[in-house]
Write a structure and sequence with these properties.
Layout lengths: L1 H18 L3 E6 L3 H14 L3 E7 L7 H13 L2 E6 L1 H8 L5 H26 L4 E5 L4 H8 L3 H9 L11 E3 L7 H10 L4 H4 L13 E2 L4 H20 L11 E4 L4 E5 L2 E10 L2 E2 L7 E2 L4 H14 L3 E6 L13
Bound molecules: xanthosine-5'-monophosphate (XMP).
Xanthosine-5'-monophosphate binds next to helix 7.
Protein backbone atom coordinates (compact mmCIF):
# COMPACT_ATOMS: atom_id res chain seq x y z
CA UNK A 1 0.00 0.00 0.00
CA UNK A 2 1.02 3.60 -0.54
CA UNK A 3 1.86 4.28 3.12
CA UNK A 4 4.42 1.49 3.15
CA UNK A 5 5.88 2.74 -0.13
CA UNK A 6 6.38 6.12 1.53
CA UNK A 7 7.88 4.59 4.65
CA UNK A 8 10.25 2.50 2.54
CA UNK A 9 11.38 5.48 0.45
CA UNK A 10 11.74 7.79 3.42
CA UNK A 11 13.68 5.19 5.39
CA UNK A 12 16.01 4.51 2.46
CA UNK A 13 16.64 8.26 2.12
CA UNK A 14 17.30 8.61 5.87
CA UNK A 15 19.80 5.73 5.80
CA UNK A 16 21.57 7.27 2.80
CA UNK A 17 21.79 10.57 4.63
CA UNK A 18 23.20 8.92 7.75
CA UNK A 19 25.76 6.65 6.09
CA UNK A 20 26.78 8.90 3.20
CA UNK A 21 29.57 7.05 1.34
CA UNK A 22 30.53 5.10 4.46
CA UNK A 23 30.41 1.35 4.93
CA UNK A 24 28.18 -0.74 7.15
CA UNK A 25 27.84 -4.26 8.48
CA UNK A 26 24.74 -6.07 9.66
CA UNK A 27 24.17 -9.36 11.45
CA UNK A 28 21.43 -11.60 10.06
CA UNK A 29 19.67 -14.01 12.40
CA UNK A 30 17.20 -15.57 9.99
CA UNK A 31 14.45 -13.52 11.63
CA UNK A 32 12.30 -10.86 10.05
CA UNK A 33 13.69 -7.76 11.83
CA UNK A 34 17.33 -8.11 10.85
CA UNK A 35 16.32 -9.20 7.34
CA UNK A 36 14.15 -6.13 6.72
CA UNK A 37 16.73 -3.77 8.22
CA UNK A 38 19.44 -5.29 6.01
CA UNK A 39 17.25 -5.15 2.88
CA UNK A 40 16.51 -1.48 3.52
CA UNK A 41 20.13 -0.54 4.01
CA UNK A 42 21.08 -2.59 0.94
CA UNK A 43 18.65 -0.46 -1.09
CA UNK A 44 20.24 2.65 0.34
CA UNK A 45 23.96 1.89 0.01
CA UNK A 46 24.20 -1.30 -2.10
CA UNK A 47 27.49 -3.17 -1.91
CA UNK A 48 28.84 -0.88 0.80
CA UNK A 49 26.82 -3.07 3.17
CA UNK A 50 28.16 -6.47 4.25
CA UNK A 51 25.90 -8.88 6.13
CA UNK A 52 27.16 -11.52 8.54
CA UNK A 53 25.32 -14.75 9.19
CA UNK A 54 26.56 -17.04 11.94
CA UNK A 55 25.28 -20.57 11.39
CA UNK A 56 25.32 -21.96 14.93
CA UNK A 57 23.65 -25.20 13.86
CA UNK A 58 20.65 -24.56 16.12
CA UNK A 59 18.30 -23.29 13.41
CA UNK A 60 15.34 -25.19 12.04
CA UNK A 61 15.33 -27.15 8.80
CA UNK A 62 15.84 -24.92 5.77
CA UNK A 63 16.43 -21.68 7.69
CA UNK A 64 20.13 -21.34 6.99
CA UNK A 65 19.45 -21.96 3.29
CA UNK A 66 16.72 -19.31 3.35
CA UNK A 67 19.25 -16.75 4.49
CA UNK A 68 22.14 -17.97 2.32
CA UNK A 69 20.15 -18.44 -0.89
CA UNK A 70 16.67 -16.88 -0.88
CA UNK A 71 17.52 -13.71 1.01
CA UNK A 72 20.62 -13.12 -1.08
CA UNK A 73 18.66 -13.79 -4.29
CA UNK A 74 15.92 -11.34 -3.25
CA UNK A 75 18.24 -8.53 -2.18
CA UNK A 76 21.61 -9.05 -3.88
CA UNK A 77 23.25 -8.40 -0.53
CA UNK A 78 26.95 -9.16 0.18
CA UNK A 79 26.84 -12.05 2.62
CA UNK A 80 29.62 -13.37 4.85
CA UNK A 81 28.63 -16.78 6.26
CA UNK A 82 30.40 -18.29 9.26
CA UNK A 83 29.84 -22.01 9.72
CA UNK A 84 30.25 -22.31 13.49
CA UNK A 85 28.26 -25.51 14.01
CA UNK A 86 31.16 -27.58 15.35
CA UNK A 87 32.20 -24.86 17.73
CA UNK A 88 28.72 -24.53 19.24
CA UNK A 89 28.27 -28.30 19.54
CA UNK A 90 31.61 -28.61 21.31
CA UNK A 91 30.78 -25.78 23.71
CA UNK A 92 27.37 -27.28 24.49
CA UNK A 93 28.51 -30.89 24.91
CA UNK A 94 27.00 -32.48 28.01
CA UNK A 95 25.30 -29.26 29.20
CA UNK A 96 21.71 -29.75 30.43
CA UNK A 97 20.95 -26.65 32.49
CA UNK A 98 18.80 -24.18 30.50
CA UNK A 99 20.48 -20.99 31.72
CA UNK A 100 23.91 -22.55 31.24
CA UNK A 101 22.94 -23.35 27.64
CA UNK A 102 21.79 -19.76 27.08
CA UNK A 103 25.02 -18.38 28.53
CA UNK A 104 27.19 -20.60 26.36
CA UNK A 105 25.24 -19.90 23.18
CA UNK A 106 25.20 -16.14 23.85
CA UNK A 107 28.92 -16.06 24.64
CA UNK A 108 29.97 -18.14 21.62
CA UNK A 109 27.70 -16.11 19.38
CA UNK A 110 29.26 -12.83 20.38
CA UNK A 111 32.79 -14.24 19.97
CA UNK A 112 32.11 -15.59 16.49
CA UNK A 113 30.26 -12.48 15.42
CA UNK A 114 33.01 -10.15 16.63
CA UNK A 115 35.68 -12.22 14.89
CA UNK A 116 33.69 -11.93 11.65
CA UNK A 117 33.31 -8.19 12.14
CA UNK A 118 37.05 -7.78 12.66
CA UNK A 119 37.75 -9.79 9.54
CA UNK A 120 35.41 -7.68 7.43
CA UNK A 121 36.70 -4.42 8.88
CA UNK A 122 40.27 -5.64 8.31
CA UNK A 123 39.67 -6.67 4.69
CA UNK A 124 37.90 -3.48 3.71
CA UNK A 125 40.05 -0.85 2.02
CA UNK A 126 37.85 1.83 3.56
CA UNK A 127 36.78 2.14 7.19
CA UNK A 128 33.55 0.47 8.30
CA UNK A 129 31.84 2.88 10.67
CA UNK A 130 28.27 1.67 10.85
CA UNK A 131 26.49 -1.29 12.42
CA UNK A 132 22.91 -1.95 11.29
CA UNK A 133 20.44 -3.33 13.82
CA UNK A 134 16.83 -4.42 13.45
CA UNK A 135 15.66 -2.66 16.61
CA UNK A 136 11.87 -2.15 16.64
CA UNK A 137 9.84 0.45 18.51
CA UNK A 138 8.80 -2.00 21.27
CA UNK A 139 12.52 -2.88 21.78
CA UNK A 140 13.33 0.83 22.17
CA UNK A 141 10.60 1.24 24.77
CA UNK A 142 11.64 -1.95 26.57
CA UNK A 143 15.35 -1.03 26.76
CA UNK A 144 14.45 2.45 28.03
CA UNK A 145 13.15 0.77 31.16
CA UNK A 146 16.52 -0.97 31.57
CA UNK A 147 14.81 -4.13 32.79
CA UNK A 148 16.57 -7.46 33.18
CA UNK A 149 14.40 -8.90 30.44
CA UNK A 150 15.58 -6.30 27.94
CA UNK A 151 19.20 -6.98 28.83
CA UNK A 152 18.74 -10.68 28.34
CA UNK A 153 17.11 -10.04 25.01
CA UNK A 154 19.73 -7.67 23.68
CA UNK A 155 22.42 -10.09 24.78
CA UNK A 156 21.01 -12.86 22.63
CA UNK A 157 19.94 -10.81 19.67
CA UNK A 158 22.29 -10.56 16.75
CA UNK A 159 24.64 -7.64 16.64
CA UNK A 160 25.45 -7.10 20.31
CA UNK A 161 27.87 -4.20 20.08
CA UNK A 162 31.50 -5.20 20.67
CA UNK A 163 32.91 -2.80 23.22
CA UNK A 164 36.22 -2.11 21.52
CA UNK A 165 34.83 -1.69 18.01
CA UNK A 166 33.42 1.78 17.73
CA UNK A 167 30.47 1.65 15.38
CA UNK A 168 27.67 4.10 14.95
CA UNK A 169 24.29 2.38 15.04
CA UNK A 170 21.91 2.43 12.11
CA UNK A 171 18.43 1.44 13.25
CA UNK A 172 15.99 2.02 10.39
CA UNK A 173 13.08 0.19 12.08
CA UNK A 174 13.20 2.12 15.37
CA UNK A 175 9.78 3.72 14.91
CA UNK A 176 7.97 0.64 13.60
CA UNK A 177 5.88 -2.16 15.04
CA UNK A 178 6.16 -5.78 13.91
CA UNK A 179 3.21 -5.65 11.50
CA UNK A 180 4.69 -2.55 9.83
CA UNK A 181 8.06 -4.28 9.54
CA UNK A 182 6.35 -7.22 7.81
CA UNK A 183 4.55 -4.88 5.40
CA UNK A 184 7.86 -3.17 4.69
CA UNK A 185 9.53 -6.54 4.10
CA UNK A 186 6.87 -7.43 1.53
CA UNK A 187 7.31 -4.03 -0.05
CA UNK A 188 11.04 -4.73 -0.38
CA UNK A 189 10.32 -8.07 -2.07
CA UNK A 190 11.57 -10.41 0.66
CA UNK A 191 10.46 -14.07 0.57
CA UNK A 192 7.20 -14.78 2.46
CA UNK A 193 8.97 -17.43 4.56
CA UNK A 194 11.17 -14.72 6.03
CA UNK A 195 8.58 -11.93 6.24
CA UNK A 196 6.00 -14.12 7.98
CA UNK A 197 8.38 -16.09 10.18
CA UNK A 198 7.10 -16.62 13.71
CA UNK A 199 9.32 -15.39 16.56
CA UNK A 200 12.17 -17.82 17.24
CA UNK A 201 14.49 -17.64 20.24
CA UNK A 202 18.14 -16.69 19.72
CA UNK A 203 19.38 -19.92 21.38
CA UNK A 204 17.22 -21.78 18.84
CA UNK A 205 16.75 -25.51 19.06
CA UNK A 206 19.36 -25.58 21.82
CA UNK A 207 16.62 -24.77 24.35
CA UNK A 208 14.07 -27.09 22.72
CA UNK A 209 16.03 -30.24 23.50
CA UNK A 210 15.39 -31.14 27.12
CA UNK A 211 18.72 -32.70 28.01
CA UNK A 212 22.14 -32.30 26.45
CA UNK A 213 22.39 -31.03 22.87
CA UNK A 214 24.15 -33.10 20.24
CA UNK A 215 24.01 -33.43 16.48
CA UNK A 216 21.83 -36.53 16.42
CA UNK A 217 19.25 -34.98 18.75
CA UNK A 218 19.24 -31.80 16.71
CA UNK A 219 18.59 -33.79 13.54
CA UNK A 220 15.68 -35.66 15.17
CA UNK A 221 14.11 -32.44 16.42
CA UNK A 222 14.65 -30.67 13.10
CA UNK A 223 12.76 -33.39 11.22
CA UNK A 224 9.83 -33.40 13.66
CA UNK A 225 9.69 -29.61 13.76
CA UNK A 226 9.70 -29.38 9.96
CA UNK A 227 6.71 -31.74 9.73
CA UNK A 228 4.75 -29.79 12.36
CA UNK A 229 5.40 -26.48 10.63
CA UNK A 230 4.59 -27.91 7.21
CA UNK A 231 1.21 -29.20 8.37
CA UNK A 232 0.39 -25.96 10.16
CA UNK A 233 1.10 -24.02 6.99
CA UNK A 234 -0.83 -26.50 4.87
CA UNK A 235 -3.84 -26.00 7.18
CA UNK A 236 -3.52 -22.24 6.65
CA UNK A 237 -3.01 -21.60 10.37
CA UNK A 238 0.57 -20.36 10.58
CA UNK A 239 -0.38 -16.68 10.78
CA UNK A 240 -2.95 -17.29 13.53
CA UNK A 241 -0.58 -19.23 15.75
CA UNK A 242 1.97 -17.00 17.48
CA UNK A 243 4.64 -19.65 17.88
CA UNK A 244 4.78 -23.40 17.54
CA UNK A 245 7.73 -24.80 19.48
CA UNK A 246 8.35 -28.51 19.07
CA UNK A 247 10.28 -29.89 22.04
CA UNK A 248 12.32 -33.09 22.19
CA UNK A 249 12.34 -34.90 25.55
CA UNK A 250 15.72 -36.35 24.80
CA UNK A 251 16.32 -38.05 28.15
CA UNK A 252 12.87 -39.65 28.29
CA UNK A 253 11.98 -42.91 26.58
CA UNK A 254 8.73 -44.77 26.41
CA UNK A 255 7.64 -48.11 25.07
CA UNK A 256 5.67 -48.31 21.87
CA UNK A 257 4.79 -50.78 19.17
CA UNK A 258 5.20 -50.32 15.46
CA UNK A 259 4.98 -52.86 12.67
CA UNK A 260 5.77 -56.13 14.39
CA UNK A 261 8.21 -54.73 16.86
CA UNK A 262 8.43 -53.06 20.21
CA UNK A 263 9.97 -49.60 20.15
CA UNK A 264 11.65 -47.64 22.89
CA UNK A 265 11.77 -44.10 21.58
CA UNK A 266 11.54 -40.47 22.59
CA UNK A 267 8.41 -38.37 23.06
CA UNK A 268 8.08 -34.94 21.53
CA UNK A 269 5.85 -32.14 22.71
CA UNK A 270 3.87 -29.86 20.41
CA UNK A 271 3.54 -26.40 21.95
CA UNK A 272 1.35 -24.24 19.68
CA UNK A 273 0.41 -20.96 21.37
CA UNK A 274 -1.57 -17.84 20.62
CA UNK A 275 -0.35 -14.54 22.03
CA UNK A 276 -0.22 -10.80 21.47
CA UNK A 277 3.25 -10.05 22.80
CA UNK A 278 4.67 -13.28 24.34
CA UNK A 279 4.21 -11.89 27.86
CA UNK A 280 1.10 -14.02 28.25
CA UNK A 281 -0.04 -16.82 25.98
CA UNK A 282 -2.77 -19.38 25.59
CA UNK A 283 -2.44 -22.85 24.11
CA UNK A 284 -3.73 -22.87 20.57
CA UNK A 285 -6.80 -25.02 19.94
CA UNK A 286 -5.48 -26.65 16.79
CA UNK A 287 -8.09 -28.70 14.92
CA UNK A 288 -7.94 -32.40 15.81
CA UNK A 289 -7.41 -33.41 12.19
CA UNK A 290 -4.31 -31.19 11.97
CA UNK A 291 -2.93 -32.67 15.20
CA UNK A 292 -3.70 -36.15 13.95
CA UNK A 293 -1.85 -35.52 10.68
CA UNK A 294 1.19 -34.17 12.51
CA UNK A 295 1.22 -37.10 14.94
CA UNK A 296 0.93 -39.74 12.22
CA UNK A 297 3.56 -38.16 10.04
CA UNK A 298 6.09 -37.63 12.83
CA UNK A 299 5.81 -41.18 14.18
CA UNK A 300 5.99 -42.59 10.65
CA UNK A 301 8.78 -40.40 9.35
CA UNK A 302 11.02 -39.86 12.38
CA UNK A 303 12.22 -43.27 13.50
CA UNK A 304 13.42 -42.20 16.96
CA UNK A 305 10.07 -40.70 17.99
CA UNK A 306 7.26 -43.00 19.05
CA UNK A 307 4.98 -40.65 20.97
CA UNK A 308 3.55 -37.19 20.26
CA UNK A 309 2.02 -35.07 23.01
CA UNK A 310 0.38 -31.64 23.09
CA UNK A 311 1.11 -29.04 25.77
CA UNK A 312 -2.16 -27.46 26.96
CA UNK A 313 -0.69 -25.07 29.55
CA UNK A 314 -1.28 -21.33 29.28
CA UNK A 315 1.36 -18.71 30.19
CA UNK A 316 1.36 -18.16 33.10
CA UNK A 317 1.95 -20.60 34.70
CA UNK A 318 3.90 -22.21 31.85
CA UNK A 319 6.35 -20.29 29.70
CA UNK A 320 6.18 -20.58 25.91
CA UNK A 321 9.51 -22.39 25.70
CA UNK A 322 10.22 -25.42 27.89
CA UNK A 323 13.62 -24.11 28.95
P1 LIG B 1 9.00 -17.69 27.33
O1 LIG B 1 9.48 -19.08 27.11
O2 LIG B 1 9.75 -16.98 28.42
O3 LIG B 1 9.34 -16.90 26.00
O4 LIG B 1 7.51 -17.61 27.51
C1 LIG B 1 8.83 -15.63 25.66
C2 LIG B 1 9.34 -15.28 24.27
O5 LIG B 1 10.75 -15.12 24.26
C3 LIG B 1 11.37 -16.09 23.43
N1 LIG B 1 12.58 -16.52 24.12
C4 LIG B 1 13.82 -16.09 23.82
N2 LIG B 1 14.26 -15.27 22.83
N3 LIG B 1 16.47 -15.57 23.60
C5 LIG B 1 15.58 -15.03 22.72
O6 LIG B 1 16.01 -14.30 21.82
C6 LIG B 1 16.11 -16.41 24.60
O7 LIG B 1 16.94 -16.88 25.38
C7 LIG B 1 14.71 -16.67 24.71
N4 LIG B 1 13.97 -17.43 25.57
C8 LIG B 1 12.68 -17.33 25.18
C9 LIG B 1 10.34 -17.18 23.25
O8 LIG B 1 10.54 -17.91 22.02
C10 LIG B 1 9.06 -16.39 23.24
O9 LIG B 1 8.83 -15.76 21.99
Amino acid sequence: NWTMVNIAEESIEAVRAQIGDGRAICGLSGGVDSAVAAALVQRAIGSRLTCVFVDHGLLRKGEAEQVEKDFVAATGVNLHVVDAQERFLAALAGVTDPEEKRKIIGREFIRVFEAAEREIVGESDEPVQFLVQGTLYPDVVESGGGTGAANIKSHHNVGGLPEDLQFQLVEPLRTLFKDEVRALGEQLGLPAEIVWRQPFPGPGLGIRIIGAVDRERLDILREADAIAREELTRAGLDREVWQFPVVLLADVRSVGVQGDGRTYGHPIVLRPVTSEDAMTADWARLPYDVLQKISTRITNEVREINRVTVDITSKPPGTIEWE
